[in-house]
Description:
Blueprint: H1 2-29, H2 31-54, H3 61-81, H4 89-136
Helix pairs in contact: 1-2, 1-4, 2-4, 3-4
Amino acid sequence: MKTFFKIDAWLQMPLCIIALILLPVALFLNQKLITYIYLVTGLVQLCSFLIRLMLPYPKSKLYKLYGWLMMPVWIMLLLFMLNTANVGWPLGLLVLIYMVAALFFSPIIAIAYAQDCWSVYKASIYKIQKFLQLVNN
């Protein structure tokens, strides 16, 4: 579990930094690049979220917030890609508003999720070091 937290933290932080650097550049050079940045960052974080969901450790508020805000986006994208999202007028408008809002809040949530991965990794290191000090004394 500690190894996963280490890999996850060291993957999430550089990924978010690179995405934040590339997003403004992509706005001026190539708008298709924005879609790839969103999807790559989001898919890596989705995989991380689902793996962490199965691990037995206390989940933080940031982790739960990420799940509540981003999982509906992935479910809606999947339904739209499968062409099964046949929604009517009032619900369709709400889905559209939420998806557009997700374009703006997802980078903030991605940074918060990466920070949460880093803090979970640091907490796991601290617990192991504390345990080793107790054993050695």
